[in-house]
Amino acid sequence: MATTTTAPAGPTVGGRHGWRIVAALAITSTIGYGTLYYAYAVLLGPMAASLEASTTAVTGALTASVLAGAVMAVPVGRWLDRHGGRALMTIGSITATAFLIAWSQVQTIEQLYTVMASAQKAGPDLDPRSARTR
């Protein structure tokens, strides 16, 4: 009968590199939530006034964004299972930046819906919880 022995991992396994990745993910997640979700509540009134729309209509754009993200959850999950989360997080961060700039240029409620829904379709990991690193 073959026996196997295991030894505990040394303190250098993973090293500081792993903690840098965790720190980077924590920082980018916080920034992502702050700019894309938390800011929405703060900007809701001014956006509604600027777009001459009701707060209900403006909130509907965020709902459309969440629904678009839900539609993308399964394909993105499959992609993550095959390829890991690093590339997706990078692409998602770049895409989020582009859509944040597009959001700043919105002039009509229709444009707001388009930008918000497209942001989730193009960069489905705008919700940082949707990706993991490998």
List the helices and strands and how they pair.
Blueprint: H1 15-51, H2 55-83, H3 86-104, H4 109-122
Helix pairs in contact: 1-2, 2-4, 3-4
What can you tell me about this protein's structure?
- The longest helix has 37 residues, at 15-51.
- The radius of gyration is 20 Å and the shape is elongated.
- Mean pLDDT is 80; it is low at 124-134.
- Helix 2 (55-83) runs parallel beside helix 4.
- With 134 residues, it is mainly alpha-helical.
- It is 74% helix and 0% strand.
- The chain starts with 14 loop residues before the first helix and ends in a 12-residue tail after the last helix.
- The protein is built from 4 helices and no strands.
Identify the notable features of this structure and list them briefly.
mainly alpha, 4 helices, 134 residues
Largest sheet: none
Radius of gyration: 20 Å
Q: Give the SSE order as H and E letters.
A: HHHH
The helix count comes to: 4
Write down the overall geometry: elongated
Task: Please give the number of β-strands.
Answer: 0
Range of strand content: under 5%
Mean pLDDT, to the nearest integer, reads: 80
Relative helix content: over 70%
| Poorly predicted parts | 124-134
In whole angstroms, the N-to-C terminal distance is 35 Å
Derived structural class: mainly alpha
